[in-house]
Design goal:
One of its GO terms (cellular component) is dynein complex. This protein is α+β, with helices and mostly antiparallel strands. It contains ten helices and twelve strands.
């Protein structure tokens, strides 16, 4: 029996070795082209892998960081300086009752603005509460809890704390980038709620719920033209202009900016999707004019139904599908995984 098993193992090893040798000799080297992808896909994968490796190394570094010339800044001092800076930069919460008193008519866009203000209040109040609590803990005025320690570790490692992400929008950014983005979102919301007039070009990525704004476009057009909402769709026309080129919003629909394309690029000269340039992973899109039209008037000829996602994680961050013009067969872009992203 032992001899029989040994013979079987030898045959199995031979088959395995033969298969490996055949793959090495007869099959082409693995390449993104084999899967219909652009070489940028490999660059993106390797970049994300490197970032993950450096993140692990960062988490393993000593708790005390030397500043050189004998000076040492402790973990607690670094965290305390960071939280004080954050608390200083955060503005007051939106006064919803005061904002409602300024509005004469609650249009779909106004409703979206109120919803965004409420979500922002929930997030910023949690940020302030947790930072103030940690500050007291570092001063010794409160007993350090596990939640406070988790927050301290997140601030030290430049990651967004879990209690914040639960109340925020999907994001893959580090804490510093995430917080700067948060402040920009607050400024955009403050400008919009100043007089509740729609911005000349709307930063679609600045919403907690971009779908609500896109739905508001359809609702506004449906009410104005007395069209049934369930028989409408969105038409997306990519302009040749940037955000600064627009001084006022359109009569119907909205101009949106801040989108990026992954897997391909938009050719502004010919107004079609075309192959990406090497090392340009996520080229920016021009301003897109979005308006609502009846379903039966939608042009689907030579169009690629391009999915829109909030982050590069895609999946559950799906927002909408924008039809974009193409001269190539749409299946090419499907295979290449072409999508629009609101954050990179």
């Amino acid at each position: 029996e032992l001899c029989r098993q040994s013979a079987l193992d030898s045959v199995s090893n031979l088959n395995l070795n033969f298969s490996v040798q055949y793959i090495d000799d007869a099959l082409p080297p693995e390449s993104p082209y084999l899967y219909g992808l652009h070489p940028n896909a490999e660059i993106g994968f390797l970049t994300q892998t490197s970032e993950k490796l450096f993140r692990i190394v960062l988490e393993m570094q000593p708790r005390d960081t030397s500043m050189g010339e004998g000076g040492v800044v402790t973990r607690e001092e670094m965290v305390k300086a960071l939280l004080e800076e954050m608390l200083e930069k955060l503005t007051d919460e939106f006064n919803i009752a005061e904002l409602m008193a300024k509005v004469e008519q609650r249009t779909p866009y106004v409703v979206v603005a109120f919803q965004e203000c409420e979500r922002m209040n929930i997030l910023t109040s949690e940020i302030k509460r947790s930072l103030k609590e940690l500050d007291l803990g570092l001063k010794g005025e409160l007993t350090m809890t596990s939640d406070m320690e988790n927050l301290q570790n997140a601030l030290f490692l430049d990651t967004v704390p879990e209690s914040w992400t639960k109340r925020a929008y999907p994001s893959t950014a580090s804490l510093g980038t995430w917080f700067a983005d948060l402040l920009t979102r607050i400024k955009e919301l403050e400008a919009w709620t100043g007089d509740f007039s729609l911005p000349s070009a709307v930063w679609l990525a600045g919403f907690f719920n971009p779908q609500s704004f896109l739905t508001a476009i359809m609702q506004s057009t449906a009410r104005k033209n007395e069209w049934p909402l369930d028989k409408m769709t969105l038409q997306c026309d990519v302009t040749k202009k940037n955000r600064e080129d627009f001084a006022s919003c359109p009569r119907e629909g909205a101009y949106v900016h801040g989108l990026f394309m992954e897997g391909a690029r938009w050719d502004a000269q010919t107004s079609i999707i075309t192959d990406a340039r090497l090392k340009e992973l996520t080229p920016a899109m021009p301003v897109i004019f979005i308006k609502a039209i009846p379903d039966d008037k939608q042009d689907v000829h030579s169009m690629y139904p391009c999915p829109v996602y909030k982050t590069r994680q895609r999946g559950p961050t799906y927002v909408w599908t924008f039809n974009l013009k193409t001269r190539e067969n749409p299946s090419k872009w499907v295979l290449a995984g072409v999508a629009l992203l609101l954050q990179i």
